[in-house]
């Protein structure tokens, strides 16, 4: 595969950090962005220690001013692939869901992904190639209690992606959403505690009965699986795969 420049949001930890490392190890140039500048720099240091090519930048995807500034900053960079990965979670029943947190989740995971895609699309169109990979969730396809903002944002991401796929069908640009069930990251570890509190059960029961029980294969998804799927979507062989929600769910949605 031709070596590409890949911009990844939320690259300072969890899925974003590990995805950055795997893609860099495959020879791709990484633009690692994160809300926290130091976190992005730590990811860059990990990649550089392995001889990878990386640029670390601070980016708050919920702020249009930040997105506009990033586009201006990257005028001399060819961005081939955008991975919309930045995310956060809030576990609470709707009646007690803080309105500002609901808004923030939608701003980051739906609006931010849309506006960053909007910012990078013109250059992708001009260069005749682009890949947009959204890191969605099983909750883009199904729902769970106490996650109204997260589920709404991830479901919205699928509709947004279908529209962009139609608008870019005349060129070699694709947009797809990878929908994994639970990946063991710090974000999921915090969810385990929150779910235990809301459901009134132990953390071990959250893992076995809420997270893994719906998956016939019964294991957490690895970032390596997501990375290899991303690499395939970047390839010429995937040029006609667009507007898809690709479930990596251990059989969850087969039930």
From TrEMBL:
<dbReference type="GO" id="GO:0003858">
    <property type="term" value="F:3-hydroxybutyrate dehydrogenase activity"/>
</dbReference>
<comment type="similarity">
    <text>Belongs to the short-chain dehydrogenases/reductases (SDR) family.</text>
</comment>
<dbReference type="InterPro" id="IPR036291">
    <property type="entry name" value="NAD(P)-bd_dom_sf"/>
</dbReference>
<dbReference type="InterPro" id="IPR050259">
    <property type="entry name" value="SDR"/>
</dbReference>
<protein>
    <submittedName>
        <fullName>3-hydroxybutyrate dehydrogenase</fullName>
        <ecNumber>1.1.1.30</ecNumber>
    </submittedName>
</protein>
<dbReference type="InterPro" id="IPR011294">
    <property type="entry name" value="3-OHbutyrate_DH"/>
</dbReference>
<dbReference type="InterPro" id="IPR002347">
    <property type="entry name" value="SDR_fam"/>
</dbReference>
<dbReference type="InterPro" id="IPR020904">
    <property type="entry name" value="Sc_DH/Rdtase_CS"/>
</dbReference>
<dbReference type="Pfam" id="PF00106">
    <property type="entry name" value="adh_short"/>
</dbReference>
<keyword id="KW-0560">Oxidoreductase</keyword>
């Amino acid at each position: 595969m031709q070596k590409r420049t890949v911009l990844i949001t939320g690259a300072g930890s969890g899925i974003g950090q590990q995805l950055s490392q795997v893609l860099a190890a495959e020879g791709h140039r990484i633009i690692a962005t994160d809300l926290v500048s130091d976190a992005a720099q730590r990811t860059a240091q990990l990649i550089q220690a392995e001889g990878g090519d990386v640029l670390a930048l601070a980016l708050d995807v919920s702020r249009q001013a930040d997105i506009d500034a990033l586009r201006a900053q990257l005028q001399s960079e060819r961005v081939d692939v955008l991975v919309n990965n930045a995310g956060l979670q809030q576990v609470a029943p709707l009646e007690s869901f803080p309105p500002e947190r609901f808004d923030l989740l939608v701003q980051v995971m739906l609006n931010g992904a849309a506006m960053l895609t909007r910012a990078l699309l013109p250059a992708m169109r001009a260069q005749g190639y682009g890949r947009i990979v959204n890191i969605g969730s099983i909750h883009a396809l199904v729902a769970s209690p106490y996650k109204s903002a997260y589920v709404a944002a991830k479901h919205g991401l699928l509709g947004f992606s279908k529209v962009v796929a139609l608008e870019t069908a005349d060129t070699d640009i694709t947009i797809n959403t990878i929908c994994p069930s639970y990946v063991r990251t710090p974000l999921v570890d915090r969810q385990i505690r929150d779910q235990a509190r809301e459901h009134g059960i132990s953390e071990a029961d959250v893992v076995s009965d809420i997270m893994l029980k719906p998956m016939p294969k019964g294991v957490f998804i690895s970032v390596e699986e997501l990375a290899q799927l991303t690499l395939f979507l970047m390839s010429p062989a995937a040029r006609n795969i667009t507007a898809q929600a690709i479930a990596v769910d251990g059989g969850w949605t087969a039930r």
